[in-house]
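Working notes for the structural subgroup meeting. M.R. asked for a predicted model of this chain before we commit to crystallization trials. I am recording the input and output together here so anyone reviewing the notebook later can reproduce the run.

Input as submitted:
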Amino acid sequence: MLVDSRKVIGSPIRCGEVTQTWIFKLLDQEPRPGWVRLELEAKGPLVVLDRARFELELSLIASAAGVTVMSSTTLVAIGPFDGQRRPATLEHGNERTLVNARCIIAADGVSSLTARKAGLNTRLPLSAIGSGVAYQMTQLSLAHPRRMTMEPLLPPWPAYPYYFWTIPNGPAQANVGLYVPGREGSRAQALLDSIIASQPHLARGRKDAIVVGMIPEARPLEVPFADGLLVCGGAARFLDPNTGGGISSAILSGRVAAEVVLEAFALGAATADALRPYRRRLEPTVYRTLKTRWRFHDSTVDFARRGLPWKEARDAK
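Returned structure, recorded in token form:
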């Protein structure tokens, strides 16, 4: 069963939609028409997704394979594991349904409450939560219409950990956004507007839509599992601290979660011990990569606090 609180799965989006092409192999899918907006010029093969269409059509593929897909449905409570199952209370409209789940996979993004409802401590202080705001812009005159830029801000703008991005996603169009620490969230849009106004290739563009969301500035969950529970993607904080990116790690962790759950069922039940391989299998990929990215993040913050330019921090890497 797939449960999603949104009325239309995939909408609204909450990211810049950039990811690596190898995600399609993990999904056992060839990219379908409309899934990819643009292939970017980059060292590695990067694409910009139409994430709303991509996620919706993945849910349709799952439904055709026999998955019960429930949109506009919220997980409101999770009961204790009885050795075989966890009771989960779902709410759809004014109706509540009790489902006895052999295993719950929390894949509900950075604002996830699922793991907390199941007893894992996923609370974050406000100081560890950042704000992201972006425009979907058209009628742009981009010098490099297939090249993504994502750089910390330089004077006269506030210094790192603020950063700014331009992600082309079609002819003369791009996602243009900004990350700021949570304490500065109230001024994020005004700051983004002023940066756009200062850059001629962006200033004459049209703002068609706005995308907002929070970005945890916290390391991944060290124990992303419990009896009858696995935590994936943004819910487990599998996010790059320098870019906020997390599509590929979400899909990778989801694939590993599915494999581990099936193996646990074959052993009898999805106990914590049976689910423990999930963390171990993610160590050489997700955890190791994010450890390196966090090391760079921390050194860059240190340079910024000492008043040194970001370029020196990058070169010191």
